[in-house]
Predict the structure.
Amino acid sequence: MNASAPDTAAKPAKEPFNLGRELKQWAILILIVLGIHSFVAKPFFIPSESMMANLLVGDRLIVSKFPYGFSYLSPSLPILPPIEGRLFGRYPDRGDIVVIKSPSDGADWIKRVIGLPGDTVQMIDGRLHLNGKPVPAVRVADTEIIVSPNTDCLNIPQFRATRDDGTPVCRYPTWRETLADGRQYDTLDLAETQNDNTQPITVSDGFLFLMGDNRDNSADSRVPPEIGGLGLVPYENIVGRAEFTTFSLDGSQSLNPLSWPGALRGERAFISLRK
């Protein structure tokens, strides 16, 4: 009996490394990422306390790029010259939380839309007035935030407190404002400041009046750009609309991955910013 013939079928040769092909694939991948980042959505990190009580230092969130159309500032890379207007543009709604390019330093800032073109905005004794009428505001329960490396009220000790279990917290007096269309959001009023009383400002065509929810700790449209504020913000400077948080860190994390779970604020994940 003849023995079976050995399988002599040749295996396909491994395709040799091709630097040009690899670079092309990486270039396509980078273009896809930049396209999404420029025209669909981008992540954002909250670096300051200007939007408390609604956003805390350490919150990460998603900003959608398309709701208000696109401007020369939309691309992730600064490749376009200044161009007036927006492609497929529309104005935000009052109460929207938006990320904008600051006219004073070119950085991304996050604030709430208060005034649209034609609106007149004024603060009187710490109370927001819109088009000559006070925006209804009612006192609600204090905003309580656990003390952490990202949030500590040592510089305003009157708001420092301790829970029954010994946990140190910051308790901030909070007011809920209601806009004419029923949109509600919480604001903090911590002290009497020079920005509690302002001259009436009428918003010009092509501009927005923005404010931080932490009214005494926000260099917003009440503050001129010449001294580090926003002033009225050009329509073109809108980057996008804040949609929801993804996760939040309290600042106690280090480079050691084992420290990351303990720094997570689980209750801060996936909070809608469009209520």
